[in-house]
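cache lookup: miss for this entity combination. No prior model stored, computing from scratch. Input as submitted by user K.M.:
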Amino acid sequence: MMAFVRETRALSEVQGRLGWDQETMMPRGAAAQRAEEMAAMESVLHARRSDPRLADWLAEAVPEDDVQEAQIRQIRRDLDQATKVPAALSAELARVTSLSQGIWAEARDSNDFNAFAPTLEKVVALRREEAEALADGGDPYDALLDLYEPGATAGQLDEMFGALRPRLVALRDRIIGSERRAPVMECGVPEDVQMTLTAEAAAAFGYDMTRGRIDRSVHPFSSGSGLDVRITTRISPDAPLESIYSTIHEVGHAAYEQQVDPAYLLTPLGGGASMGVHESQSRLCENQLGRSAAFTSWLFGRLEDLSGTGGLADARAFYAAANRVAPGHIRTEADEVHYNLHILMRFDLERELIAGRLAVTDLPEAWNSRFARDFGLEVHSDAQGVLQDVHWSLGLFGYFPTYTLGNVYAGCLHAAMRRDLPDLDEALAAGSAAPATEWLAEKVRRHGGLYAPRDLIERATGALVSEEPLLAYLEEKFGALYGV
Ligand code: ZN
């Protein structure tokens, strides 16, 4: 059974590399052929994932230790998911979501939700059908959430998010009301300097370039596992901090995959524990460590050496600029205080969609009124509102909340890490996050998919998962920055 499962994983890595190629290297004219190549891989993989022999092997399997038990549990889970959903529905979903991404992109470019609405209606209907098949009489939204965050339920997240919201809003309101304004970095960091800093930041956060590489793409991402984990970045001369911090973010994902126990290579345990745990690794590196006063002081020094500091007087001003809080329409550009408010509204809206309580045609209105309530800003166009994210066009319902869950996990891990590593800031100020990445490798990353996400975080921190450490960190950091 394990030989068969490993071969399936290997093929799925090949499929992933085709996806990487498509975003980085593929000639533009190859798109139609690539779609056929991807569809062919998908049908081979689907047949292997639902192969009837798996059920027989599972029935005979006798685990000898915890690792084997976890492998068997994962194989059973994958088989369960692959067989619950009728093949025709899977195929239809794959077909519709591959087309809808293009339709979404055009609708966003022309700022026209109505051009996308009929397609989104189809995607929602198909995903609901799939969710009902997966849920087996349970809650459909929970069944989707479980695909990305095993064991999590909407009820549990609702409680956590309900505790986050009022304190985030109160903190944001104090900051907006503060007299203090953060400086803005003026542009002027040349492309080659950005690439140099990007490579240095990747090394600082433990990315092993002998088993990885950095290329460019329109949207930064990481892909792969084990011995081949690649990331991409985006260089924009006008926003030099963006390339550095999006690189650190992707390195958090990639180093996680690289540091999984090599014994799990190409097995069901050979990747991250969940999307939430994955996001905790990227956000912790990007924010708690990468935007710390210690690390930004090193970064400021490098900018001084290489190209100049964009008009910022000193390391203190650079730290404030890297942590500037301002309300805005776009999730991916949001600061640490606003970010989770973007997620919370998506979580509420997508649950209504999947439950059938909100019609797709009413979505822009629901979005805009909720946005005005949560952010105090009017939404003037669908492109800066309901059309901004790719997720729903791909049918990714149940995915958004893992971002905030990741931030909550990052808060827990960061608090525990600081307790264990009292001298961490000295290393960060010298341009190295090594003590932190070694701590993460030992406590979280090497375990791969061995433990359930919550168990993993609780083992690593010695405390129950809670939103409290994240809130305390945000209130302390931004309270000091803005004098509130
Ligand atoms: Zn991420």
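stored under new cache key. The mean pLDDT is 95.
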